[in-house]
Structure to design on (880 residues):
């Protein structure tokens, strides 16, 4: 999309568009990898959260490069706008931005597991990079991307073929609300219902 | 009126022309419309149990909002049970409505066949049992409120959706609805630190497995061009993949993701902590529900969509089944905490279901379904008993807590004995037939080594089931159990060994070898510790009724055939 | 004209690997959680790439659901973390009982 615009603007044909597509991909990939390594390697959770934003922006850039403009916008709004803010809020709320909070001990088995996982990922890379052309996979089963705005296509798809999954996300949201109520409530019972010992316990907290 | 709405709603948007066909390729009249507009007809009757559970949860929340606060403490379990029963009735109605045909409805997202309906029945029953059991526990712990029951119903909604799913996206959403509700249930106990950590651990590892599963969905989608099971199966039937690396990687990730949910080794390591930390009745519900739904997803994916890839996934499942059977059984012996022991026990039980799955035949699927259905009663009942004997605040979960139960509460001990024997696979209980069916299916496919390993695992597991059983019937005076306050309780296993006599000497030695606890402490503890005066265990009527249902079902399913016929009829997937 | 799909797929696989490894090696609960978000983003990128390669809207629709699920998961996950920290704060440091395994 961006590439196409650029090509039209400069009018210098496919060669420049090709180069610009690669450039967008390269910038996006650099952002994604920088951010991802930052999340994992930086000690301060606040910095990790900010690095996560960089990765999210990189992913959105790749989405634009792959003509998924709407999803790129949603990615920025939902992830960077809501999810990361929530993360930062909790980090500040718990005041864990300075110290590494005590997490459940990672078991000894986790280190080899991490190495194993790395190897699996490497094998994955080899498989994926060998795939040169995609003759495999049935094409446009759920409808083609071409010929129309992607928002319209996506909307049609979600409200017909994916109607039930869309409706059932309601259940997820209900659970999220119930969970927030359950988990954030300190004491369910009013003081009058408690035994004296429990009241004492409650006031101590 | 309702009938007309239900029937008018049945339909399918013919987009790819594949969704409306029955199992033998015949178009079913009245169920299909060739409406190509954006109007989306919804076949409500194909998702009736799920709708009942979901709307039930919303009604519960609404009722609690309208009523004055805490005015009706006993109302919610009753409502929740009623919703579960309504879902059960809806499922039974569906069973006769769907017959032997199967259709995919609602945009090809839902399979309406007897497999779906079977799990509708299993989940409804589990919801009813869990609602009945939870009430007294929650009141004892001061946790009662509408949220617990809403979460039970919502988790059930997700489980039914998983079984009904006709595509990987729907399966994923069902999985998430169930899992997120279960994470919250694990963390539900407000005052126990273990509960919070169990919830957190379950959440992190569960989300991790969800992400892995999702990556598997993405790769499978890339390799086949669709996330719908019918399209995947159709594509794989029509084409032979030259480079099938992406599909195999996707399949492996799908197996890993669902393997986490059913707690198959080597993806089991969250299970003991989560089962131990979660509120006890919820643990039983979690064990029954997540296993049933996870295996429903595995069966749909592997024996349904990827049946053409049997040569690739059967060896993988074989390996996982062997590991699950053996490690689950062996590790259970080494446990001193009853809930952890039952967690490992549930892992090894998952191994048998995997044996049925590995067979990849109708008989194997029927065996797995039978196993999951009967196991739901057994495990909910087991954790109901544990919830009663552990006392307020879940103070005692060690093996000593169950010592001499037969003397204090003969009825409770008898119920527990039935559940233990069922899990051990003793004849005249459902567990025996369940193991028999899956092993028989495995033998039919020529899997003799796997069948032998399964029987071996049953023999190993019999040790610790019988150990608990003997502890219950052991007298108080013989050897004192470890006090709950004594943390390095090596005495539990040792006392058990003594009580059980010579047969368990090897067992005790194995325990000592696996868990290098300072056994000296335990030995001195048994000398110095004196049993406190034990209060009488109160059995609330709802729990008593539930236990009676579970016991009767466990024995009835062990001696008669309707349940296996039910399971055999349910194997007809699209 | 455009960058071959394999490049995006490899990039997504790398991102997924970093996320998964980070989850296993980090001990900060919030960073562990962020690593899961990295993994989900890798999945999203894979979906969008396949959607382009297969010329199919299904992949993009799937991303939509992943986003919704991720949002719900974050809410519940952070609530669990906050609740856990509160309970820990209630107990004294010596009393913190960490589950084995």
């Amino acid at each position: 999309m961006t590439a196409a615009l650029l090509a039209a603007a400069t009018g210098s044909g496919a060669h420049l568009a090709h180069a610009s597509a690669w450039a967008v991909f390269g910038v996006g990939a650099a952002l994604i990898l920088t951010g991802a390594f930052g999340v994992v390697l930086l000690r301060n959770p606040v910095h990790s959260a900010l690095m996560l934003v960089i990765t999210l922006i990189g992913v959105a850039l790749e989405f634009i490069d792959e003509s998924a403009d709407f999803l790129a916008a949603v990615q920025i709004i939902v992830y960077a706008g809501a999810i990361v803010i929530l993360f930062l809020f909790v980090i500040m709320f718990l005041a864990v931005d300075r110290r590494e909070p005590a997490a459940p001990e990672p078991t000894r088995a986790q280190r080899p597991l991490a190495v194993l996982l790395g190897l699996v990922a490497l094998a994955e890379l080899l498989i994926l990079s060998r795939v040169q052309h995609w003759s495999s996979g049935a094409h446009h089963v759920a409808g083609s991307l071409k010929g129309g705005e992607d928002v319209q296509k996506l909307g049609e798809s979600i409200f017909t073929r994916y109607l039930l999954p869309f409706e059932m996300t309601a259940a997820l949201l209900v659970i999220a609300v119930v969970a927030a109520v359950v988990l954030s409530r300190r004491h369910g019972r009013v003081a009058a219902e408690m035994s004296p010992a429990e009241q004492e316990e409650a006031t101590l907290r | 009126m309702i009938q007309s709405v239900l029937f008018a709603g049945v339909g399918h948007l013919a987009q790819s022309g594949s969704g409306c066909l029955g199992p033998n390729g015949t178009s079913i009249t009245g169920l299909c419309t060739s409406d190509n507009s954006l109007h989306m007809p919804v076949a409500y009757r194909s998702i009736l149990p799920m709708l009942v559970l979901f709307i039930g949860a919303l009604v519960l929340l609404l009722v609690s909002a309208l009523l004055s606060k805490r005015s009706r403490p006993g109302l919610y379990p009753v409502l929740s049970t009623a919703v579960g029963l309504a879902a059960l009735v809806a499922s039974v109605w569906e069973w006769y409505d769907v017959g032997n045909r199967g259709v995919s409805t609602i945009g090809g997202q839902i399979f309406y066949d007897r497999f779906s309906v079977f799990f509708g029945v299993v989940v409804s029953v589990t919801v009813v049992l869990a609602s009945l059991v939870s009430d007294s526990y929650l009141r004892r712990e001061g946790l009662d409120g509408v949220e617990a029951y809403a979460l039970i119903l919502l988790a059930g909604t997700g489980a039914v959706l998983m079984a009904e799913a006709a595509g990987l996206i729907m399966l994923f959403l069902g999985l998430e609805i169930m899992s997120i509700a279960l994470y919250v249930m694990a963390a539900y106990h407000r005052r126990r630190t273990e509960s919070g950590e169990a919830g957190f651990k379950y959440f992190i590892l569960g989300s991790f497995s969800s992400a892995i599963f999702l990556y598997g969905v993405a790769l499978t989608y890339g390799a086949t061009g669709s996330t719908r099971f019918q399209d995947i199966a159709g594509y794989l039937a029509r084409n032979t993949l030259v480079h099938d690396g992406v599909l195999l990687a996707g399949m492996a990730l799908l197996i890993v993701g669902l393997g986490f949910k059913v707690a198959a080794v080597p993806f089991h390591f969250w299970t003991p902590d989560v089962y131990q930390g979660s509120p006890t009745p919820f643990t039983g519900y979690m064990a029954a529900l997540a296993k049933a739904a996870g295996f429903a997803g595995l069966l749909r994916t592997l024996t349904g969509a990827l049946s053409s890839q049997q040569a690739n996934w059967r060896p993988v499942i074989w390996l996982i089944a062997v590991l699950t059977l053996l490690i689950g059984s062996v590790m259970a012996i080494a446990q001193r905490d009853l809930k952890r022991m039952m967690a490992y026990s549930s892992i090894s039980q998952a191994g048998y279901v995997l044996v049925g799955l590995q067979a990849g035949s109708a008989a194997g699927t029927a065996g797995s379904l039978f196993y999951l259905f009967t196991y739901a009663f057994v495990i909910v009942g087991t954790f109901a008993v544990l919830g009663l004997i552990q006392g307020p605040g879940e103070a005692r979960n060690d093996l000593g807590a169950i010592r001499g139960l037969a003397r204090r509460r003969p009825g409770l001990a008898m119920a527990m004995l039935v559940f233990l024997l069922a899990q051990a696979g003793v004849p005249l209980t459902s567990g025996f037939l369940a193991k028999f069916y899956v092993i028989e299916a495995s033998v039919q496919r020529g899997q003799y080594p796997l069948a032998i390993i399964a029987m071996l695992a049953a023999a190993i597991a019999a040790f610790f089931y019988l150990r608990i059983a003997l502890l219950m019937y052991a007298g108080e005076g013989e050897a004192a159990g470890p006090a709950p306050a004594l943390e390095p309780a090596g005495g539990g296993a040792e006392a058990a060994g003594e009580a059980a006599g010579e047969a368990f000497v090897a067992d005790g030695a194995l325990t000592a070898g696996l868990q290098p606890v300072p056994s000296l402490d335990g030995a001195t503890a048994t000398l110095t510790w004196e049993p406190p005066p034990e209060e009488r265990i109160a059995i609330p009527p709802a729990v008593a009724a539930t236990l009676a249902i579970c016991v009767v079902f466990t024995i009835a399913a062990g001696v008669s055939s309707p349940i296996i016929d039910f399971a055999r009829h349910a194997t007809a997937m699209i | 004209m455009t960058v071959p799909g394999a490049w995006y797929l490899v990039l997504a696989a790398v991102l997924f690997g970093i996320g998964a490894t980070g989850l296993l090696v980090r001990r900060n609960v919030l960073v562990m959680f962020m690593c899961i978000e990295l993994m989900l983003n890798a999945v999203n990128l894979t979906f969008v790439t396949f959607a382009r390669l297969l010329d199919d809207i299904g992949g993009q629709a799937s991303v939509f659901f992943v986003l919704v699920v991720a949002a719900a998961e974050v809410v519940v996950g952070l609530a669990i973390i906050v609740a856990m920290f509160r309970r820990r704060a209630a107990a004294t440091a010596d009393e913190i009982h960490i589950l084995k395994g």
About this structure: Residues 1-36, 477-531 of chain B have pLDDT under 50 and may be disordered. Residues 2-474+537-569 of chain B form one domain. Chain B has one domain: 2-474+537-569. The radius of gyration of chain B is 24 Å.
